[in-house]
Amino acid sequence: MPPRRLVPAAVLCAVLAATSAHAQTPKPAAEAPNAVSPVLILPPTLPPKLVSTYPAQDQTVEPGILILKAAFDQQMSPTAWNYAPAPGAEPLDCVKTPRLLSDQKTFVLICRVLAGRTYGVTFNAQRPGGFSNLGENPAQTASLTFKVENADPVTTLRRAMELAGLRADQTPVQEAPRASPAGG
Asked: Residue 170 has what DSSP assignment?
């Protein structure tokens, strides 16, 4: 064989070897897509409005246990609220934290009222914060005053709930979760 033919054969072998090696080289793994945490974007909202209360403005109620009920026109945040005494009226004697009912619009708060007095409460008396919708837009400030008659007092939670128009599953007291048995 003439030496000329060896050179092209050697070049051919080198090219084939390089192509074969390139074909066996593993391809880099595709990059994982960027992980994005879920974000809830809510459109701007109007401030929530108080649409109904129990007792109603200037209503006369029985003394004893009272369930103050405040319903708003929008779904509300369960952890955002504030209330204070209304000017010129007796402050309410209530538990500190209201409970948001399952309709997500109505708060209930258990209180004690005494006969012959006029009580008042201001919702969102302090800014910032207070009762707010899910978009963290605070409700408009609203006040409520009502009178308590001289009558036999309401002494049971059940009766107070009936007067406020609440069902049995709408208790103003939130139950603590059951403790799990030890080791289980």
From this structure: G
